[in-house]
Amino acid sequence: MGATTSLANRQLSVTPGQAVEATVLVRNNGTLVDQFTLDIVGDSREWSEVTPRVMNLMPGQDGEATVRFEPPRNSSVPAGQVPFGVRVISREDPPNSSVAEGAVDVEPFMDLQLELSPKSSRCRTKAVHEVVVENSGNYPIPVEVITNDPEEQLKLSLDHSALTVQPGTSAFLKLKAKPYDRFLRGADKRLPFGVTAIAPDQPPVNMDGTVVQQQMLPKWLLPAAVAVLAAAVVLAVLWFTLVKPTVQTAAREAGKAAAEEAQAELQEQANLAERRAVAAEEKANAAEKKVDEMAANGGPGDGAAGGGARGATTDDQGVDISDGTAVDFRITTDADAQADPAEFESFAVPNGAIPPDKTLVLTDIILQNPRGDSGTLAIKRGDDVLYATGLQNFRDMDFHFLEPWTFSPDQPLTVEVSCQLPGAPEPATGKCTPAVSFSGRLSGPTPN
């Protein structure tokens, strides 16, 4: 049959921080001796207890227990009715446990606090404080915050003044304090003010603060200005007594050294020009001497430009190199790029440019490399190389021979090119296209 449970008083009232008690009656309705466990259920279990928690009852016997409610005096327990239950659990018949229900009325209380941060501030034109309104009570409180200036020296303003602070929370307000008057120099002024929080049916809560007004000009400004002026005077003295003479001396020495260096360079250039003039004069004398010798021998057999009769000069093959018909032709190349610089591609005189029974006498050549190819170009007579040069050494270059080159029919003229293109992959790809223009005469064997 379990147990029956009843409360002597189902409606209780308690002030936070105090206690109230109620009596619980328990009857054993079973036929056996039973043990009963008592506990509290509901929101009040954190701040209530039952004594005793365990009781043993004979069949039909009644027992009493005391329930004590003691809510803390803080915002954790809101004001108002809090339902509760006293549960009795039978060891012999757990399913037939019983609960006696009631309610405890937690009375409201107010705990309003006011803080000012900082309490004292320093400023020249405007100070900012923070007003903190804290509600440590157990119900919402409507609050009005006002400021007061007993000496009427400050303009005080709050970002808002009316608010409702919930239990266990704080509200933060910004307070700006601006002095009405300013001063450039002088002692600090202490300007007091007050903040008051007003709530219904409660005395006002006050907090005092102070604004320390400072002079507009910083205190360090005058000493700093004096120090800067003194430093400027010292620097000026050092400049005119030490630095400026040293700089002027160094400048004069540097100018003198630069002048000497320039003079030496000009002298060196003059000496070089003189040496070149002497060398040119020596070459001119040698050429004049050679012309005189050739004139004494019967004519200018070297084919050089100039006047004079042309004699029957012959080379070592019995060819008259001073007579014949003029000839001009051009050998153009189209050489494939080579990975090996020793590989050359040969290009011959264009067909029909030189008759097969004639000897070619060359007096002028023009080398052309308009694309700036890289590699090597060689001019050959038969198997002999007469001239070789790097393609990168010229774009347009011409030669006039005092001693003509002769090419007999069995010693043909050829141009060979080894083309190397920088950055070309392996195997190399691309082409080199230098060209050589030739001018001279065509001569036959000297008649007997």
Give a written overview of the molecule.
The structure is a single chain. With 448 residues, the chain is of the alpha+beta class. The chain contains one helix and 28 strands. Residues 283-293 have a biased composition (Basic and acidic residues). The chain crosses the membrane at residues 220-242. Keywords: Membrane, Transmembrane, Transmembrane helix. Residues 298-310 have a biased composition (Gly residues).
Class derived from helix and strand content: alpha+beta
Estimate the helix proportion, in percent.
10-25%
Count of helical regions:
1
Distance between the amino and carboxyl termini:
166 Å
For the record, the count of structural domains works out to: 3
Beta-strand content: 35-45%
What Rg do the Cα atoms give?
61 Å
The helix/strand series, from N terminus to C terminus, equals EEEEEEEEEEEEEEEEEEHEEEEEEEEEE
Low-confidence stretches at least 5 residues in length (pLDDT < 50)?
A: 298-312
Counting DSSP E segments of at least 2 residues, the number of strands comes to: 28
Based on Cα principal axes, name the global outline: elongated
CATH architecture annotation of the largest domain:
Sandwich
Strand order across the biggest sheet? 2-9-8-4-6
* Biggest β-sheet strands, sense, barrel: 5 strands, mixed
Mean pLDDT: 85
Distinctive features:
single chain, 448 residues, alpha+beta, Immunoglobulin-like, 3 domains, five-stranded mixed beta sheet, 28 strands, membrane, transmembrane helix, Hydrolytic protein
